[in-house]
Amino acid sequence: MARKKLNKLHKDRQAENRAVIHFLLTGIGSLVFVAVVIWGVLEFQSTTTLPIKNVEVKSEFIHITEKQIQEIVAKNDLGGFFDTDVEAITESMRQLPWLEMVTVRRVWPDTIQLEIRERKAIAYWNRTALLTVDGVVFSPAVESYPSGLPQLFGPVGTEKNVLKNYITLNADLKRLYLNIDELKLDKRRAWTVRLENGTVLDLGRKEINNRMQRFISIYNDYIAKQGNKIDVVDLRYTNGFAVRWKKELKKVAAKAQLG
User: Fold this and answer.
1) Cα–Cα distance, 241 to 235 (Å, whole number)
2) pLDDT tens digits, residue range 187-226?
3) For the domain that residue 112 is a member of, what is the CATH number?
4) Do 26 and 128 fall into the same domain?
5) Which residue from 187, 258, 218, 188 is spatially nearest to 201, judged by alpha carbons?
6) pLDDT, tens digit, for every residue of 22-80?
7) How far, in Å, CA of 229 to CA of 245, rounded?
8) Are residues 133 and 253 in the same domain?
């Protein structure tokens, strides 16, 4: 009886020892596996394992230069495929005044790709900046300004309103083969248009679209026949207009009533 108890105790201890050994081996194996995983991650993140070898740029360059892009990329110190900071490159690119949109992404296994879209200027703004088709004001280097754009003027915060009226009024004038050279909204909120032929239209503060339509309706019968003799057409009258001739020394207006 005592021998049976000893045998059972011996077997129980052997089982416990095997369990401990199995536990230790399993733990060691797990530690080894974790170490291998960590080593693999660190190895992939190493700049020497998957270094960036190529930078591709998708863009139609007009104002942004390839040199500017190269300088920005170089300053951000390209590393390996996984540790290159694309957000830092993106933020650096956004400092370019002509940049409208940029997307920076990794392309396996060794390429950084930049997709760039430039701003498109539609007008000069207050002689100190440019205006995009969306009414965004930006200030690149003066030497990069496009030539031949209309001049738009207005108080701070009126950019989109001035641009909107420019587009509407200029579209109406194109029916007469005329174009706006300058559109101004002054501090009193009064509108003035200067045409490419030098004629100035005083539209005042109210109903400027209706007043422009009045100018269009009288242009062929009254204005066009005068050639370039007219300096200013005052359209602030309810049922008529007034003109100031270029050769006049005094500000005397000749008023013409509409029938």
Assistant:
1) 5
2) 999 999 999 999 999 999 999 999 999 999 999 998 998 8
3) 3.10.20.310
4) no
5) 218
6) 554 555 544 444 433 443 444 444 455 678 788 888 888 899 988 888 888 888 877 77
7) 6
8) yes
Question: What is the span of the domain harbouring residue 251?
Answer: 121-257
Could you tell me if 148 and 240 lie in one domain? yes
Please check whether residues 130 and 101 belong to one and the same domain: no
For residues 71 and 68, give the distance between their C-alpha atoms in angstroms, rounded to a whole number: 5
Are 16 and 8 in contact by the 8 Å Cβ rule? The answer is no
Instruction: Write the DSSP assignment of 63-128 as a string of letters.
Output: SS-HHHHHHHHHHT---BTTT--HHHHHHHHTTSTTEEEEEEEEETTTEEEEEEEE--EEEEETTT
Residues 68 and 28 in one domain: no
Measure the CA–CA gap between 165 and 162, rounded to whole angstroms: 5
Whether residue 70 sits in one domain with residue 35: no
Between CA 13 and CA 182 the distance in angstroms is 100
